[in-house]
Amino acid sequence: MKAWLLKDFGLQNLQRDEVTTPEPKPGELLVKVGAVSLNFRDKAIVEGFYEPHLVPKPLIPVSDAAGTVVAVGDGVTRFKVGDRVNSTLYSRWIDGAPGPNEPAYCLGMPLPGGLADYMIIHEESAVPAPASMSDEEASTLPIAALTAWYSLMDVGHLQAGQTVLVQGTGGVSIFAAQIAIAAGARVILTSSKDENIAKVKALIGSDNIEGVNYKTDPDWERKVLELTNGLGADITIDVAGGNGINQSVAATKVQGVIAQVGFMTGQTSALNLMPLIFRQTSIRGIAVAPRTSFERMNVFLDEHKIKPVIDHVYSFDEAVQAFEHLSRGPFGKVVIKIS
If you write DSSP's letter for every residue of 23-39 in order, what string do you get? Predict the structure, then answer.
């Protein structure tokens, strides 16, 4: 089968090749991949700053995929040939709290991912792809949508009338805005581009979205406080990381929740403890979610007719260009059509 292999760190070392098509073992599905979507995690793996000591080489990267089951291993009962399925990042995290070794069973690293004609997904980790979505659309769900859903609903326990602060207009952020508005909440969105804020407002079509340009308002946390009568957001989705966590603390209400989902500006931070203590803020690291949360999310997305926002769909041969687009900062998701 055709596959893109990461043979060493650096995008120049992501190369198209041919490898043996895998065969499903007991409990496994062989999936003909229809499409994959890219996440910052995939970029970080390729460039060598995401747990590089755990990356096998060569590696078929990219965790998030949608496709069709073409063969099953012995004992498979949850799916049959012809079913459309989604991958999940954590192949063994089914429900409840994660185990201590979940990262050892992630698709796209260290397990092979979906940037190939075919991939293996265990039947227990697979999720039925929404019938209302194409493979390109469904491929955006496993990390971006599910991270937003889990942060807001399972961790933040979002209620109608609350305020959600969302950073940026990438995949997780736009899904978070869509889900929050559908749940009856108010959204404050930060971006470096006024036009992107306007696009999100137009896309979702709600008067309950306000924007803050962090380039023109570098002390953006003060603007968030102004917009919330000095209280701050109930839930903050922090995709940036780095020292910006201090601004997130200031922009979040007393005893509010910060869902730390990303590290786009840095994997370390100098956290000011006194504001954290006085505001009694909860900072929760979010590493996506279990399969059962994915299944609950799909019901919600279907009920509220939420569609993924895709910036561009690239062909299989254009995988390198897709990663370059991701590095530039997309509006929504970057997708690669496999078949």
Answer: ---TTEEEEEEEEEE--
